[in-house]
Amino acid sequence: MKFFVALLGVLAMAISADAGASMHNPFFCYATDTVRSMTNMGSVITSYEAIRRFNFTTVNPYMSTCTPSRFWYLGRYGSRLPHAPTLQSMIDFAESSIQDDIVRNYEAGRTTLCRQDFEMIRDFTLESDFGGIFRIENAGLLTESGIFALQNISRRYQEVFPEIFPQTYERSRFHFRHTGTPRTNVSIQAFATGLFGEVGAEGIVHEPIPEQDWFLRPFDFCPDFWEETADWDRQTRAFETGPEMLELIEQVNRKLGFNSQNELNFTQILTMWNWCRFKIAATFEASNSETGAHCPWCAPFSVAHHLLLEYYEDLSFFYASGYGVRNQRMLENLSCGLIQDLLNQMQSDNDGDTLARIFVSYSEEIQGMLVALGAFRDLWPIHQHNFAQQSGRHWLTSLISPFSANLAAVRYDCEDGDVDLRFFLNERPILVPGCDQQTGACKLSTIVDRFQRFISADCSTFFCSTN
């Protein structure tokens, strides 16, 4: 069995044999690229289907001879439009003189843009680009592609686990909960629609959302935790002003024909990248294309640039909600409610209990759960100075927490009375320390022993402690 944890490094190295900025090709033509490997390099702003394009799979129903009996799911919302501050900066950029400046630079022979890329930039308008949905009033809203992705995910799980997912909704058999934001509400409805159809999904009952949702939004309600993430800003700022990123800034300016008197700064270049990755992720599933919709603002970047910017984002999450958090115990405890719920679900032998518990939250919650499980931990931590050495890293947020990312656990009842658990990330089995490293199967007793401290804890207070 090929496991997802091993595939991460293989994919990353296949995409880039040497991730150094020196691999930059100044004559790379985005418009004629038939592979578009940058579509799966947007960090958490990456389409789920773009990842499946490189990692096409679904859960193997024959991976165990035991019977699946319980399902637990923590998902991220589907692809969305940028939040208001980011979207406004993108709109301001698009309405600035930069587009006209690039046209003049090209006509003066100062750029290395191919003709096709130049024409895409020249013809770009806010209204013509994907029907003009990138408007401030739509900030943060889920897109059609995001809905498609979630419906397809739930359908695939239903096909693999028909014993758990009948096509008719029963309140006593399914538990649904999301946060208070519209994007998680629409996402969980899309997931339910994939299972029960539009009419059936309208009848599902959601668990009420508390005012202080420490269960699905623990990061927001633990002020002590943010004192442990000081390295987040230090690492990302240091990388932003480091030699690799300075070289990227110089190369992008040179490609677009700007010189030292009028060069674009890092913020402007990052805004172009945001246009690129948000446009692709927001439209991928609905584009009917294996490489996604065109985005003119992908043209300034080579594949090497995407790898650098992806690493910049990976650093941010690694030190904010990953293995770079100084107090790992507190980070694990933030998942107290989720872990306790998971254990209660998997230990239940009551035939009348819920078959599936479905939660929709955010990328930080999924990353925090992966840390608690000990998955995707690299031998050496990523930091501001080892970009070139980390091309095959496991902590690759584009692959572990894209839009619609999902962490699922399935209980398998075996004929000998044993109970196995298997964990899946984005529909692929993952290896969890302490479990069978060949089959990926975890003994329920092993997981219970490992997380014993959560079983009887009062998670409403324990989640923000170092106990």
TrEMBL record:
EC number(s) reported in the record: 3.1.3.62, 3.1.3.80
Top-level enzyme category: hydrolase
Annotated GO MF terms: acid phosphatase activity; bisphosphoglycerate 3-phosphatase activity; inositol phosphate phosphatase activity
InterPro entries: His_Pase_clade-2 (IPR000560), His_PPase_superfam (IPR029033), Histidine_acid_Pase_euk (IPR016274)
Annotated localization: Cell membrane
Keywords attached to this entry: Cell membrane, Disulfide bond, Glycoprotein, Hydrolase, Membrane, Signal
Signal sequence extent: 1-19
Pfam family for this entry, one: His_Phos_2
Domain of life: Eukaryota
CDD domains with a match to the protein in the record: HP_HAP_like
Catalytic reactions on record: (2R)-2,3-bisphosphoglycerate + H2O = (2R)-2-phosphoglycerate + phosphate; 1D-myo-inositol 1,2,4,5,6-pentakisphosphate + H2O = 1D-myo-inositol 1,2,5,6-tetrakisphosphate + phosphate; 1D-myo-inositol hexakisphosphate + H2O = 1D-myo-inositol 1,2,4,5,6-pentakisphosphate + phosphate; 1D-myo-inositol 1,2,5,6-tetrakisphosphate + H2O = 1D-myo-inositol 1,2,6-trisphosphate + phosphate
Family note: Belongs to the histidine acid phosphatase family. MINPP1 subfamily.
UniProt-recorded name of the protein: Multiple inositol polyphosphate phosphatase 1
Gene it is expressed from: Mipp1_12
